[in-house]
Specification:
Length: about 325
């Protein structure tokens, strides 16, 4: 199969035709690129799992471009859930709600709930509106690979497996949406993201974060290894440890991923091959996946700074811990 990358202007009609015909289309969102299909068409949904090599027991979230669609896809939407929706949608958040009968089991993987996301990216909105359908979409990477934040990331990973990628530039948020379960009386964050617990607590009063041992995996995806680069990755707790790990692995072609100030902290580190992720945590969030893509292409061992646990840095560290399998130096 030939995989095309087209701008919205060139490709919107084709994208709509593919979706209505039961096929898949990759499209940009502000978080990461998604691989979309008609959420109401079981056979189309199956094509997503096939193209990604994704286990069928891992549910998909549904993307909308109009809040009215929520009441078609979900039932028993509480006042608290509406408050979260009104505060953060469109934006980098997915809200888990009780699903309505129209959501196929293929989307929800047999769960009684469904994740709803209203992306703020204008290409995503125009694409979903033009389809006139709810679009289910996971990140547009093959299962266990790094999520894509540019059309070329999608192309490199999925070429030959999907017909079309809509161009939307680089994703400005850079990591997947915050997932909050609003289907029970105690709202719980299942996946951290750009919408932080502090931001949610302002609307909800109180919110639980998912942490510690997973006894019953509420976000089924949590039990799979995710966001893994092709080569080994470790987290360095200090500049000294980063330099030492670099020297210890010099034969593996190492690279250091860090913020500008971390890189400037030592002459020795400046001389190491490194990728500067930017000056602040939002920049790090925007650049982290792209840097991991670049690092796995050109290097053989990735050493990443520990960004701490304040605000969005904590969400970024959630992805880095998964990519590194918890390995530290
Ligand atoms: O930013 C994002 O959320 C991106 C863009 C494309 O929108 N999408 C994304 O989808 O990250 P995916 O499939 O890669 O991650 C969605 C996560 C999975 O871990 C899945 O297990 C979980 O959401 N999930 C989906 N439906 C769920 C549900 N009903 N209850 C709990 N977790 C759910
Ligand atoms: Mg994913």
């Amino acid at each position: 199969m030939d995989t095309k990358i087209l701008t919205l202007e060139e490709g919107l009609d084709k994208a709509v035709e593919l979706i209505k015909g039961g096929d898949v289309v990759a499209f940009p969102t502000e978080t990461v690129y998604g691989l979309g299909a008609n959420a109401l068409d079981k056979e189309a949904v199956k094509k997503i799992f096939l193209a990604k090599g994704r286990p069928m027991d891992n549910p998909l979230i549904i993307h909308i471009a109009d809040k009215a669609m929520i009441d078609e896809l979900a039932v028993d939407v509480t006042a608290q859930a509406r408050a979260v929706i009104d505060a953060f949608m469109p934006g980098p958040i997915t809200v888990i709600l009780k699903k309505s009968a129209c959501v196929p089991d293929e989307v929800s993987a047999g769960l009684s709930t469904v994740g709803i996301r209203y992306p703020s990216h204008c290409v995503a909105q125009k694409f979903i509106k033009a389809c006139g359908l709810p679009i289910c979409a996971p990140s547009a990477n093959t299962s266990t690979k790094i999520s894509p934040t540019s059309s070329s990331h999608v192309y490199e990973d999925m070429k030959g497996r999907i017909p079309l990628i809509l161009e939307g530039g680089e994703c400005q948020v850079g990591i997947e949406s915050t997932i909050i379960d609003m289907s029970t009386s105690s709202p719980t964050i299942l996946r951290p993201g750009a919408v932080t617990p502090q931001m949610l607590a302002q609307v909800l009063g109180e919110v639980k974060t998912f942490s510690g041992e997973i006894v019953v995996a509420k976000a089924p995806g949590m039990k799979y290894r995710h966001y893994a680069p092709d080569c080994e990755m470790v987290v360095a707790s200090s500049v000294e440890n980063a330099v030492k790990a670099y020297e210890d692995h010099i034969d593996d072609k190492p690279v250091i991923l860090a913020k500008s100030d971390f890189i400037c902290a030592a002459n020795k580190l400046r001389d190491c091959d490194h990728i500067d992720l930017g000056a602040d945590d939002s920049e790090v969030m925007r650049n982290i996946y792209s840097a991991m893509h670049e690092a796995q292409c050109s290097y053989g061992y990735i050493i990443c700074q520990d960004f701490g646990d304040e605000g969005v840095a904590k969400s970024v560290m959630n992805r880095i811990e998964k990519a590194s399998g918890g390995k530290r130096v």
